[in-house]
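Why this split exists: single-chain examples teach little about how molecules sit against one another. For that reason, every record in the complexes split bundles all components of an assembly together and asks for one structure covering all of them. Below is a record exactly as it appears in the raw files.
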Amino acid sequence: MLNRNNLRCLLAAAATTVLTLPAMAQNYAQDSATIKKIYDNALTSYESYENLRYLTKNIGARLSGSPQAAAAVEWSRQLMEKMDLDTVYLQEVMVPHWVRGDKEIGRVINSKLVGSADMNILALGGSVGTGGQGLSAEVVEVKSFEELEKLGKKKVKGKIVFFNRPFDNRHLHTGSAYGEAVDQRGGGPIAAAKLGAVAVLVRSMTNDIQDVPHTGSTRYEDGVEKIPAAAISTKHAEQLSRLLKDDPSLKFYMRMTSQTLPDVLSYNVIGEIRGSEKLDEIILVGGHLDSWDVGEGAHDDGTGCMQSIEVLRVFNELGIKPKRTIRAVLFMNEENGLRGGRKYAEVAKAKGEKHVAAIESDAGGFTPRGFGLDGSKEQLQAVLAWKPLLEPYGLHDIAPGYGGADIGPLKGQGSVALIGFKPDSQRYFDYHHTEIDTFEQVNRREMQLGAASMASLAYLISEYGLSGGTAKVQK
Amino acid sequence: MLNRNNLRCLLAAAATTVLTLPAMAQNYAQDSATIKKIYDNALTSYESYENLRYLTKNIGARLSGSPQAAAAVEWSRQLMEKMDLDTVYLQEVMVPHWVRGDKEIGRVINSKLVGSADMNILALGGSVGTGGQGLSAEVVEVKSFEELEKLGKKKVKGKIVFFNRPFDNRHLHTGSAYGEAVDQRGGGPIAAAKLGAVAVLVRSMTNDIQDVPHTGSTRYEDGVEKIPAAAISTKHAEQLSRLLKDDPSLKFYMRMTSQTLPDVLSYNVIGEIRGSEKLDEIILVGGHLDSWDVGEGAHDDGTGCMQSIEVLRVFNELGIKPKRTIRAVLFMNEENGLRGGRKYAEVAKAKGEKHVAAIESDAGGFTPRGFGLDGSKEQLQAVLAWKPLLEPYGLHDIAPGYGGADIGPLKGQGSVALIGFKPDSQRYFDYHHTEIDTFEQVNRREMQLGAASMASLAYLISEYGLSGGTAKVQK
């Protein structure tokens, strides 16, 4: 199917502004064979999937600062120690230690229509509690910050602000819908508190209409009162909204005993295979080891961590000696602080490390669709030039895009390309930050295809770098 | 991103043998806008998903000849009657009526290693029973028909033949692995009986290592003894294989009371929107209404049926008046006889109906990847010419391929193109033909994207036909 003419054609179509052909795999046949081996190996191995089972089932949820997070650090360190890597080490980082406390209570009370009705709520990460007695107040529903502003102090003071703007389901990529809605979760408490609100309810960040509430980080601001904030399940958000239409004076009772404790020492977990030719040039593959404290952190981001380790296993098992260094990094504290990502970048800078690329997997262990690249045009062209090698594996969607939260702080260090692994996005926000983000939701093959995709891209970068150039396309 | 140059380029790359440009959507902007509306509508609607819930939860499994199959026929007829279509009708077809009987018993007995051990088995569709007493015999394991032939009558006579060739997990598309392994299920009983075997066990057709056995059709041959045949779960297939290595003289007890009853009158369910310009040119969208008798027939093929009806709903709701006729066909008896597909083609031929294309969805309600086309080069070129309109929705994989079982009998009638809708294949054989093929395994968005993909392709075919030509690419 592919010949030189349509290969050129594909390249040209993919990167219309290029005049010279970007760097192409010098040896198409050999690279194609290596990538096939990578996929064959990943698809027939159960090791990484069993590792995920251990992480999710035996360790479970692992919020930063928790004993389970410490267990995950030690377990994954030992896992990599057994792998015959060139080095495995921990990188110290102080992390926030937020605890949820008792199971939350959320309840519509004195409603003219239903009397009282329990509602599924879940404290947002970082939220203060309500005190042991809980609080009750009238609810004012808004769909936007503009709407909230218009209401003003008079209508907001003393009330619970209910942010209820749903995901726009028309977005093909669910991340786009999340991106548009998540300001409510992050910025809701500050905006509401400024107008005198006593608490915040935020519609859960999901495409689905579900019973389970979705937690996630929220923020406070110095000088603005810290008010309790909880997610409410989309099903109950719809119900509450309906009730409010007919009975705006109903009250909502909420009780949360969440609190923030002193910071805790934790670690990024790092393992690497050193490059055979350019060992100072690093290709990072990573995910985050911490998770929220509900569910098992399977898709978010157990799969990303296990895939990153799997890249090293596949390289080792196939005897691939990468020219550049391949480093797996399991970041701590992506969910509520990003301290691990920041620390990693800080240390890298201090050491003068040279990262060629950082590939993050933090969008779930679903069937791969491609990569998003946050880097230069030349770097994008270099990756696009490999499309003929990657498309047979369903990696069609290679385009400028978001790298990832953990690798974000590396931006600007040298010429590192930040690359986000893009799996299919349809199911991610069904599970994201909930008690149903469990091992059972992960399909072994989908997860392994992700690992193979990351390994294949890491291999190509390790062979050819990302600096572009005018190497001839040979096939 | 797209301009005329790289559009040409994509076209040329996609169909290297074409000298003239194939028929392209004459009005790119308008078609693009219509397709966007189709996706927007499908992604924001819950109707089809709720219909699937009814079909799977209130009617459930619906094997041909069962009361549930009759209920599914009547329910889906009424569903389409309510839709303001131009016509809704039933097409009579006599179908086989096989019943499973009591829950199967499968058990390793007198094993030196484990004594006795229950094994999850499930009668293959069409299988005879064992008689109420069951049967027990030694087991001979084979991986292929060649291996079986080599064993010969002497080593097979009086035994249970255990076909245990696993899926080759290296295949990216799970359907390829299924295609390579399923000869064991279909042809096992005949081959084993010819050598004097008393029964057959077949490793379940799945990529996964699971507890649940997968049923599916098997065959008999006139003049060859009909022996009982059951699927065994992959987990127990592995266990049985291990036991046999150390203890080849263990026996296996199986009891199945399945039987075939007289044929039953059933129906294909058909609804259509007549074409505004070429009403005699039919574009079929279809799935099969019957399912196996375990689980709920959700992915196989409740989703395909609901997607086909959804195509009509979306057309109606958006006020799209197709130039050619769009006909949804819910075929009966795909699973164990294909009588519905054969009858449909027979009637179409007798009536002199002209099918331009038949699009079948019978590979699960997963995220769309593309279409496989069984037709002429010109027809393939015509569809490839629409890639710029379809790729933004993840429909990259448009290539020659398999249409589908139900539409297969239409082949050769006029110049009909048989088109198989291709969703992502990774999870399909986790559920296929099992008790876990349930509504809960279906993601609304993934299913709706499939419906939108089918509707978009049906729309383009209804606008432009598939006859190729040299229309200019305009954008």
